[in-house]
User: Fold these one by one.
Assistant:
Number 1:
Amino acid sequence: MHESSALLTDRYELTMLDAALHRGTADRECLFELFARRLSGGRRYGVVAGTGRFLELLKHFRFGESELEWLRDEGVVSTTALDWLADYRFSGSIWGYREGEAFFPGSPILVVEGTFAEAVILETLALSVFNYDSAVATAAARMTSAAGSRPLAEMGSRRTGERSAIAAARAAYIAGFSATSNLEAGRSWGIPTMGTAAHSFTLLHDSEEDAFRAQIDTMGAGTTLLVDTYDIEEAVRLGVRLAGPELGAVRIDSGDLPIVVDQVRRLLDELGATSTRITVTNDLDEHAVAALAASPVDSYGVGTSVVTGSGSPAMGMVYKLVAHRDDQGDWISVAKKSAEKATVGGRKTAARAYDRHGVAREERIYLGDGPAGEHEGAADAASERPLMVQLVEGGLVDEQYLGAAGTRQAREHRAQAVAELPPRAVSLTRGDPVLPTVYLEG
Amino acid sequence: MHESSALLTDRYELTMLDAALHRGTADRECLFELFARRLSGGRRYGVVAGTGRFLELLKHFRFGESELEWLRDEGVVSTTALDWLADYRFSGSIWGYREGEAFFPGSPILVVEGTFAEAVILETLALSVFNYDSAVATAAARMTSAAGSRPLAEMGSRRTGERSAIAAARAAYIAGFSATSNLEAGRSWGIPTMGTAAHSFTLLHDSEEDAFRAQIDTMGAGTTLLVDTYDIEEAVRLGVRLAGPELGAVRIDSGDLPIVVDQVRRLLDELGATSTRITVTNDLDEHAVAALAASPVDSYGVGTSVVTGSGSPAMGMVYKLVAHRDDQGDWISVAKKSAEKATVGGRKTAARAYDRHGVAREERIYLGDGPAGEHEGAADAASERPLMVQLVEGGLVDEQYLGAAGTRQAREHRAQAVAELPPRAVSLTRGDPVLPTVYLEG
């Protein structure tokens, strides 16, 4: 595996750069914008995730000897372009929604300003990161709402690519999950890790009693025992007999959960294990979590559905040129005209407007140069909050958005941003975005 | 990013190992099996992909100082387990279906033999790789069938995690795609790369003519021009005027494709550009590709749908303990009993049985020790083909399955394996697997 992120890129980014270098247009100052035309899956709101990862990858977006040699051998671009790539450092500026922010159709989630050459070649990487991470975070936020105060653990590493698994754990954590099973996500991003045991562990031993004893001896009575390898009732009795009422939790991974969970709770209480928790993990999605709201479940483990965006595995975000400077230095708005894929040209800033109760009512996109905070806003709005922050200035990444600290900050911001949305935002049925997007002249 | 693949692992793999070490059961010889209980999405057959990637990752599955230090600091496992992990090298053996092979519910896609400790900790990584890669290959194979003799290019890097994008390009190639837009997939796996140009390139320039000129001057007349930024008809006329009838291709990325493609073909022919090809790329999936069968399309670019498994983004494969040796050295079959997740215990080999016309008719899974080739088979079968090969022997990976050569071999094998299936295998409607899975005593 190669350290550099530079070849995580579509070939055409480099051939366009090559052609622009030859035409003398590569140095034109440009604005690219990353946004979603719609919220796939009938989502009521989206959750931005990927920012911290993208900024880390941006720092490793370098064409080293090994990358250049391969491009040369394959004849991908001319030697002019190879020389240019050898010196590549992104030297422009990037603004964007905070990671964890709610977004809506048209929200300018990322605005990249730089020469055409230096901004266009970030397209593929930026979209890969934001499309996947935001799809996971958007699905995960629905699960967080459905779970209410009960904790959710992300356990889906085995159902997505092995490196996407790290991104998914991080996105789910930002969206309110409390932990992940993925160790690398713990190491790389400071996310709490958790785990129970698999059926194989029970099957390995000569009896369920042997297996439970081994686990309790090593992990302590506070461990979580998997009780559905053979007979659930027998396993619960056995677990309490071996660990005592201090048994941490039992995990149920199969069966008709509302019924089984009730039975297990009654049994645990009868056995005096009133503080032993029940965690369930059987192919859950947000609808299954919601359906268990009235059952005595203490926590959920979610796998496949969260790491695959629960039916919407990619966010559908695009990265479009919206303006470039002309030879006089003035910005020219540009936009594609094709009917169903029309874009709004020009530089944009964004703000969320609130009603007098502090509930979000409108996604405002201001066309023009000024920061959104300086706009007057519509007369009936009690207030508005500017949504964009500067992430990169003159090539320098703002370190506060990186690493474990940036991830924690995004998680906190997500909680606030979602709490401000109208109550119907938590609806799990397909529908329209919960806020309208309004374009205003800046 | 860390080189080692060892922490791409669920925490419970290591805590189970820890508990088994303490119990004295960690060294029990075990057989784990990777298989799918069903084909998600009503697929008629699955395509195995991921083998070559998994074997590469297996070679880097090492707990180095940095991994051990993190595990120690986090208190994930005991020092006994840390010492064991420090020396970890997989020393067991692995058999499996060839990469590119068709598979069915219950097919033993991978059989891992080793001690419990050394085999259990590969679970997460193996599943991540096979579940994602096979989901992509299975979807991609449907697109390959739908496209007939027309080439398909994989262009979905931007719609999946940035490292999954490489795996997706590789899986699609194995499933019959001819090229990818992803440069790293070209470098890492020898897959042909391709590319056209984006709308941003046209918008950057003062006119479409400027943009086309720049592209043709740099890339030659054989390039592919994107013609739907403004007006398709004008763009096609312009492209032929600038490049002449040698213009390689035009790409259409929007609009009502069957109508637009017909118009563009007529226009190109009128202009004398009879050999200029038409490539289409507008959110295609296998159904859209099939719907264009009668249109004069020359090639397809597929993005989102292929990298997200076209509605089934994870294959649903599991990794289960199926047998272990007892203290006398005899193999004991084990299986989970929960109704909807029951597994078939014991060592298995597999063969595909054919009718007398050479058409596959049955997936045979033999329970027992011998290689499938030695079984007699049912009396009415003209022949059968053993499906499993040894991938790893005593910890040593068979190099023929690695790298670009292994990938090419998998691509060839996929074509043969799919060609042998009954004709209804290419049906795009949801349905039952095209072959029944039959369990036989070995």
Number 2:
Amino acid sequence: MEKFSRNQRVATITKILIENPNKVINLNNFTDMFNAAKSTISEDLVVIKDILMKLSMGRVETISGAAGGVKYICGLSGEKIKEFAERLCIILKNRERIIPGNFLYMTDIMFNPQIIHTAGVILASAFNDKNVDYVVTVETKGIPLAYEVAKMLGVQLVVVRRETKVTEGSTLSINYVSGSTGRIQTMSLSKKAMNKGSKCIFIDDFMKAGGTAMGIIDLLKEFESELLGIGVLIDNVETPKKLVEDYVSIVDFKGIDEKGEALLFPSEMFK
Amino acid sequence: MEKFSRNQRVATITKILIENPNKVINLNNFTDMFNAAKSTISEDLVVIKDILMKLSMGRVETISGAAGGVKYICGLSGEKIKEFAERLCIILKNRERIIPGNFLYMTDIMFNPQIIHTAGVILASAFNDKNVDYVVTVETKGIPLAYEVAKMLGVQLVVVRRETKVTEGSTLSINYVSGSTGRIQTMSLSKKAMNKGSKCIFIDDFMKAGGTAMGIIDLLKEFESELLGIGVLIDNVETPKKLVEDYVSIVDFKGIDEKGEALLFPSEMFK
């Protein structure tokens, strides 16, 4: 049977780990794949573990026991996070992004895979130790970001809809009050979407007063489930948060000044 | 300055390539990062290139010239694709998925990062050589899949909305006829979402008569842009395709038989 060099094994194992974040992979997968001893694979893993730690590119954890193995956990250095948040502020400050109603056009950002991948790694790393069961978002703009966070945490994404669809089967709907506009809105979720007694985090593109997050908390109660945390790409810090207190964000938005310039800063946690 | 071993460089370069599919990375990034000669990095790349090819895990391409470098292109062996399609059929055949109206509940599949990542690699590999500018989808269920395809092709995702939103600025809307129900529907897209003269592919969860795809073709015409191809996870082959002919799919759905069993098969291209 074919033999592989250490370099070849290291490249392949790295690829498999990176593509399966937070999933425990049994070492037998690698010993079978490479026709190699467990001790050989363990040495390969030490190489990968050490260099990822050294370069702050996430980490590899060993889980012992019968169901054990190794898993890759995403991560980024504080310096890289700051760089990313600063670069994002520069992109968002472009005056052409200000649209009627003093909104910032940021749809292209939310649908840019390179930006959203990094933002997903940053937000996921705030919840790596929480044993999350689901990452929840509300359609539409936050879906790719929530998907990346779910992928990095190795869990299922759940997308709450604005209206019920025939393809969702029985659904549970709640009404909630938008914190900034005061309007009543509806959100609904298929009863098949979530097991009871689950631990969830809520990921969204933008946080204003927190009305949507409050709606999510109510909806999760209907599923006898719990919200463990909230992460958003951009926090509108101009609007006082009456409704939720505990959340993480990457960029703070302080409105648009008299010169027509958007005020954007890396969020407190990343300064 | 610190030196790195070949194993360390191979692990790091693999991670960077995998995380930036279809993006050309200049070798200077690696020579600077590792304080190593170009010839050394080239040898590292040969290791990665050879093992990915050997294991049918995608490929590494070298682009020569001043703007040159290397890029990772995703891919999967025909055998692995077939395995994936067969596994997906088994998951989808679960009787609990049949919901009133004889629909198949598949929302959890569309929001499962492990499944959608692999499906994204399979669909992206059908369009790797097309020089696509945008991957287009219609909200909501196909967004994670379209996002994965966009990420693998290294391009921007564009999400067409069912209704116009204030945060989108000026939008372009079109009406189209749903091929299966005959109802008139609307889709709209921000004028900022796409440059004129772009080449696009359309990715969606499910294809029935192809009415949505026809709508996308009309919408793209308004942006003076062109549809190069279509990819869906599941093709309803029961409904005759009057509207579009050329597309790729992973699984064929042939309806629900008299015993109440969903008829699902790997699509023709993967048999």
